[in-house]
Amino acid sequence: YGVWLQQVLGEGSRKAPLLIRYFGSCRKVYEADDIELRLSGLLTPAELQKFAQTPIDMAEEIVEACHRLRYGIITPDDENYPKRLLNIPDFPAALYYCGEWPDIDNEVVIGMVGTRIASRYGFTAATEIAKDLAACGAIVISGGARGIDTAAHQGTILSGGKTIAVLGCGINTRYNMENEGLRKLISVNGALISEYPPGAPPLNYHFPVRNRLISGLALGVVVVEAGTKSGSRNTGHPAGGPGGGGFGA
Prior knowledge:
This protein has eleven helices and eight strands.
């Protein structure tokens, strides 16, 4: 039901969390009839029409694809859904993952983000910071991209720690394939996570939407080598929801 709701409203929607809270669960949103949806006052006529025209079959096909690929799915209806994510106004109605789903709420999770075109110094600094964080028991979360993201994941794995990559496309999508080997390492030393279903392409607007998950899951974010108007700097500001924060390196 979470997959269906996300297909109806799209990834990053603020309407999905409002509906989940109003009706009580993803399943109850699906079971609500047209009158109940209208009375909620949360949906536009176009959105109501989309609810009526989106069959559950679409979600069932995605679930079946995940089973074939051995990906897990977690929704706000599940006990293991991170409470930290519920602090953000646009938490996902469904998350797909490959690897071991971490106990986010009982772990120190630190985000690390930065430029894809990292200098040698920046790459080395990110690697060493990630190694130190992992040695202290922190889970390091980043975006699986080139540059600083790669350094963050590699440094964590070199230190024997756990790392999470939040992707801006489907987990199995052939994108940034120079990091294919790193993705495999991440999946056995943590998890690959995405709110985009299998096969979803890496569209430009996916990545700013993705960044809120890094900050939402983390207690703090380390920003290494980022432009003044970059998505990496924006990721650092809302880290960890209430009480969280970002810091630069």
